[in-house]
Amino acid sequence: SVVHIITLLEWGGAQENTLHTIRELDPGTYGKVLLSGRGGRLDAAAERIPGCRFRRVDSLVREIRPLSDLRAFASLTAALREEKRRTGGAPLIVHTHSSKAGILGRAAARAAGADVVIHSLHGFGFHDGQPPAVRRFYVELERAASRWTDMFVAVSEENIRLGEREKIFTRNRCRLIRSGFDTARFASGSREKGRRLLGLPEEVPVVGTVAVFKPQKAPHDFVEVARRVAAKRSDARFVMVGDGELRPEVERALKRETLNARFLMTGWREEIPDLLRAFDVFLLTSRWEGLPKVVPQALLSGVPVVATAVDGTREIIDDGKDGFLCPRGDVEAMADRVAALLSGATRLDPSYKRDRLLSEFDQAEMVRAQERLYEELLARKGFPCPPSS
To answer: Distances from the Cα of 204 to the Cαs of 33, 63, 237, in angstroms?
Structure first.
């Protein structure tokens, strides 16, 4: 069996990839189990996965809460021990995702006697914007959990380099597996449909983003860039697709800056390929990342990108060719780049490496790469390779 553990099934790349991997794992080879905290937007999607046992762990939450964390550790350990008994002697693989589930899940896997333990990095829980003592605390937690980890999976080379620099793992203990998605769907979105969904005519210039409204994505920076661009372009409109904890603050900022009439906030929508096509510029203001797959999605949609030069984003954008990279937090630089693209003073070619993106972010290959890794690690532990169905 493969047990995936993730903190919360909110809308995001890590969560979508985890669900897709579970959905597509060979059912004739692997039992499928998913453990997650309660209340995620994607819980219903998890419940619909055929052949997957989905269990909620109420005490598993993102925030550090010592009593809840102890209860979560106990619940995860009990669930994994139960799964170990279910296997009837077959190997148990535990694959954790996200920071909190990564720490508690790997500790529980060790306590339960899991045979193989893997942790996927979708970005680290520590970053340079934290107070030094807080950052160091998270680094030390990752170093401790590393001792219980057979292999790490990263979505970006930058995260691998960071893990090495912080002495969390050595290079031979981490594999690069890109964050896959349905590339054909994004390569065939409809601009006309996207504009219709937004209620905007073709001639209106649109700057948009798709993101969870949380500190990592810096939605306030998006608003500030929009304010500066709006001062230069009275015809421009701004679209934020997504939702999250910071949405009330963003709405207050829009009211304060009298930008409400220029903004559309759609919440989460299923029609992301069409909405991306409706944008003239895609703007991502993240303070840190793993690798935001919405960036290659925007490029495959034919939309130039202005983004902060953080982590895996730098591995996708070729600055000055298909997008622009700006220092994180530099709203003036981002506004200048967006305005130049809207005016036509600068032209980019977002499709110039289309074939590479179609191959590199292929969703089926992402799942195959993980299955190959499972087989390799089982073989290292002396287990026979599972037969393919």
So the answer is: 47, 41, 7
pLDDT digits (tens, 9 = 90+) for 189-204: 999 999 999 999 999 9
pLDDT, residue 129, reads 83
Instruction: Work out the burial of residue 49: count CB atoms within 10 Å of its CB; fewer than 13 is exposed, 13-18 middle, 19 or more buried.
Output: middle
For the chain, the straight-line distance linking the first and the last C-alpha, in angstroms and rounded, comes to 15
Instruction: Please compute Rg for the chain using Cα positions.
Output: 21
Using alpha carbons, select from 322, 312, 259, 306 the residue that is nearest to residue 290: 312
Which residues pair with residue 35 across a beta bridge? 5, 55
If one counts the domains in the chain, the total is: 2
One domain for residues 131 and 237 = no
63 and 193 fall within a common domain: no
The CATH number of whichever domain residue 44 belongs to comes to 3.40.50.2000
**Cβ burial, residue 109 (10 Å; 0-12/13-18/19+):** buried
pLDDT digits (tens, 9 = 90+) for 243-256: 999 999 999 999 99
Instruction: Indicate the SS3 state at residue 353.
Output: coil
Burial label for 66, CB within 10 Å (0-12, 13-18, 19+), is: exposed
Query: Of 294, 213, 207, which is closest to residue 259 (Cα–Cα)?
Result: 207
Give the whole-angstrom CA distance, residue 178 versus residue 201.
36
DSSP string, 2-19: EEEEES---SSHHHHHHH
> Taking residues 29-40, what's their average pLDDT?
94
- For the cut 80, the answer to whether the pLDDT of residue 386 exceeds it is no
Residues for the chain: how many in total? 389
Residue type, 130: Q
Q: Is residue 387 part of a domain?
A: no
Q: What would the pLDDT profile of 84-141 be if each residue is shown by its tens digit?
A: 999 888 999 999 998 999 999 999 999 999 999 999 998 898 988 889 999 999 999 9
Check whether residue 188 and residue 314 sit in a common domain. yes
Both 167 and 281 in one domain: the answer is no
Residue 30 has pLDDT above 70, yes or no: yes
Task: Tell me 278's DSSP state.
Answer: H
Residues spanned by the domain of 302: 183-360
pLDDT of residue 388: 54
